[in-house]
User: What shape does this take?
Amino acid sequence: MKAIRVSVRALAALALAAALVFSQAALPSGVERVASVEGVTEYRLANGLRVLLFPDPSKQTMTVNVTYLVGSRHENYGETGMAHLLEHLVFKGAPRHPDIPKELTDHGARPNGTTWVDRTNYFETFQATDANLEWALDLEADRMVNSFIARKDLDSEMTVVRNEFESGENNPQAVLEERVVSTAYLWHSYGKSTIGARSDIENVSIDRLQAFYKNYYQPDNAVLLVTGKIDEAKTLALVDKFFSPIPRPSRRIAPTYTAEPVQDGERSVTLRRVGDVQAVLTAHHVPPGSHADFAAVQLATQALSTVPAGRLYKALVETKKAASTFGFTYQFKEPGLILLGAEVRKESSLADARDALLATIDSLTKQPFTAEEIERVRTQILKNIDLALNNSERFGLGMSEWIAMGDWRLFFLHRDRIRKVTVGEVESAALKYLKPANRTIGLFIPTPEPDRAEIPAAPDVAALVKDYKGDAAVAAGEAFDPSPANIDRRTRRGELGAGLKLAFLSKETRGDSVNATLRLHFGDEKTLMNLSPAARMAGSMLMRGARTRNRQQIQDAFDKLKARVSVGGGATSSAATIETTRQNLPAVLEIVAEVLREPSFPANEFDQLKQQQLAQIESMKSEPQALVFQAFERHLSPHPKGDVRYTPTFDEQIADLKAVTLEDARKFHSTFYGASKAELAIVGDFDPEEAQQLANKLFGNWKSPRPYVRVSNPYRKIPPVNQSLETPDKANAAFVAGMTLNLSDRHPDYPALTFGSYLIGGGMNSRLFARIRGKEGLSYGVGAFLQSSPEDENSRFFGFAIAAPQNTPKVEASFKDEIGKILKEGFTDEEVAAGKKGWLQAQSVSRAQDRELMSKVASWTYWGRTMAWDAELELKVEALTPAQIVEALRRHIDLGSFTIMKGGDFKKAGVTP
Assistant: This one.
């Protein structure tokens, strides 16, 4: 194993040397090399396009991300939401790529576009092949300046975007944030929500959209980033081939110049809407994200809001004045905000929570931050930065935010500032900006000598990043083949004495990253009767204290070990998931073992957890989507109350939660937890021998107190129903329809059914998506799935959509009509061929993600399978004919057997769904 590691490191060094030689060699004509920091190199084309290349040989995927320096900040009155609406239209096609959703699906890509205040970006992650990269670059070059932006597409997509707006209107906390932000900014466009005003979405003209597009979607206003398994020289040549022919525009982009005046007194806003959980939120103006003070601002915000050590949590949650607290910063190109807030249950006093929130913020003048507080959050922030650098795809997409602030190198500069900022500087920044006169919440109070916060202007970013070098690039990983055969070849399997099964896949990864999961299974149908509430609380308490560490000490230890860890459990199982590095995996596993085996169940944490979960459940009582899926599950899976398969109503969940005791949770853990039926799967950079020895030490003798028998879920024929649930004052509605099928994934028809479901509703080129969203513009989100088990002859086919309440009857009619057409006419040869290509590439992309691969390996270990099952399934799908697919669908899917559930404010909309 050691020899292999040295060899791979040597190859990585050679690759780095080759990249250096390339960077010094002659570049394509008109291409200029600008800078290189920690493995990222910037080039500039003659037309002004900036190009960032970030090779990562450990990935079997590539990601292309184009960031345009335009967002909601650039919109004028009457144009709010236009940048986001344009994002949708750019997916509608260009001359060389007239059907972009189909192409993305055909290439198995993971695509999206996002819009924010300073930028818009488009990206796709796909299997690493030269052909795919050439396609993606050609696509982005084509739609950069040639997108259709047609009237017909605006007509259909406007209603989709409006439905997205309506979906956001269902969330009172999100709306409260919009109101607070818009009140904090009197003049600056940051005060306008990126989704825009409903009236602007509905009425914006195609001429204004086309002018907006032609002005901002140009090479001199864009940054192209390519990361993953790329050859830098070949990639730059392809970039030059597709983008250099685009001419530099002659127009000049007018700079935005509106500056927010210094706030001269407290402001307040009140929101009154239907809901079940109260909320309080404050906003304070702070400098731009590139300003030297921002590192201190971020540390101060996190020291106030981190859970459970943060001051707000201690002052509000531990005193039961609030169910939860939170805080974050708007790190923008121009001056942003600190947002601090809390959620408060109806039975608690909102006024008391508000007063405690303000008192905690204002107490900084007398109770400065301690070194322990600042070091804790500094460690958290730096951990997340290090983990981001270990994942080139995540890092590449995150670069859009720093590009929008002025330059990608600000990411590294900000990291360095976080490292160096002192406790005194953090305290100074907190006192400078967290002033009552700079706050949005409360009443106006005349003040003889106003104490105002002067917000600095954005510095000269070019000067800040000039000659910046940064740290050495993190270690590169191996080029890993994610085929099922290679995964099985590289996976080492075994079993420990108590019954713990092992599945280890060791490989070189970027930054020596590693992912692991431990899953425990316990109980049976009889012994678990009436214990679901206690089981859920026991699982939720695991990370809140162990034998030698309290909740905060557990979190601090994971932060120092650069580990993301989650541990939880339910009625029949418990699981821990880990993301860390090779060096730290043993220590992380030691802590996870203590958390699982020796939880302390502290009484104060139990009380806080109850309050938080009660607030969470109460917040869903009026949400259409939550209510619809709950009703759907209760109807299709009817079991007696107390059974672990029973789906309780929200009121029943609240009653159960109030009744469960700390002793109930403790007893459940001592009665059921153990490793007699368990799996440990590890994927990434680690020593298998060391991991096996450690697993044996930590879990090898941990026997389950009671035997485990899997709780089966046999098929039963469910009579169909069609029900509507009224949810007053909700702008968005939810729709779900489906039926149970008498088969498992071992059934001969399963390949045809699972692939047929994909063609029906599994991608951007699926039938339901193309019709209900693409053609009719009724829904922002629509799809269909097949859920199957390896053992239970009880599958489920279902589809879902969100829509405006008045459009829900149309969604239902189109859903039924399209399924009926498919069952009658089937799919075309071209449709099936394209679908196979996209589906197969999507499987490969999934296996290339270590976290997803780890989960799959763990699941197959439980079911006694290997990745050969996936390979066999792919071969069966490849061999399917259109006739075989539709025949399988006809044998099992019957529209007349569909249960349909809808939830929304239909009364206000004047419709009967």
